[in-house]
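Record 1 of the preview.
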Amino acid sequence: FLSRFPRFAILHELHIVLYCASFCTMAQLATCTTSSQATLGVVLPSRARTTCSTPAAATRLDKLRQGAATFTRSVRLHASRGPRRARRVTAVKGSLTQPQPQSSQKDVDLSSTFSLDEVRQSLIRQEDSIIFSLIERAQFKHNDVVYQENSIAVPLYDRHTGTRASFLEYYLRESEQMHGKMRRYTSPDEMAFYPESLPPLVLPPLEYPSVLVPQNISLNDEIVELYTKTLVPAICEAGDDNNYGSTCMFDVQVLQALSKRIHYGKFVAEAKFRSNKETYTQLIKAQDAEAIMDSLTFPAVEKHVVDRVTKKAATYGQDVLVEGAEQKEIKYKVPPEMVGELYSKWIMPLTKKVQVLYLLKRLDHEEN
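->
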């Protein structure tokens, strides 16, 4: 069986090696003196130490060492029959027992420097990401079951209530586990939905320029509520098509794009603060949130943004006709007016809310 299925043989070999190693270690430690165990950094229970002083215990330990040595020789002989499998077992053992080398020097982000024009260009690029991800999500039906708790048997529960999480929450958490290891959420323009659960980094963290002041502003809960309760029903056909995995894959893409766009308001606020520091300093010291909001609101600019994203949605969301093809009634993949409404009613107001929250705290870390 093991020769026909080499992958199982590898796991079998690894299990035996680790099992034998643990027996050998315990046998050696059991015969150590107390001072030797302290030197090794391991202390066995007093019962194990006192039992070792009896002749019967010594005999049992000798048999244990002999048996472990016999197992080890058998494993080595079995591994030598297949050089490829032996190399793979060694690699697995190495990954379990040897720490991976980590660079002590941080990598440096070499992207363009911070400026208001650069912020505007980034916001325009993010419009494309949002529209395309909405188009991808709209090809599937609503599939409301993925947003409901206790509906799909995912291995994720609320530790306090025991409630099973929704499939979307499970998918989003698992995605953040992978992205978190690859240092995605060390970037100041990325906001994890579950920052308390992020894993250790695999790549060394990038060193970013200090643009934003320290803060933990997050509207991700509002974004999820907006998306699942309002946006999805507006762009998707009602019903269930059982494409739950694909549905949540694109849900996560939309949520991450929306989160990045809305929380980019921090960069907008910082750029505006630097361009008019005296005025904003006075408003911040007075904690005048309403006046700050008024200073951030430009109806003409907002209308221009809405018109632009509506036109983009109309352009990206229709089939391109080749020359000579019969012109039929245009059917958009996502209603263009819905994208414009998304920006006017939700994205821009939430972005300005982030800006106000950021500016109100902007002077908290100002050096005197």
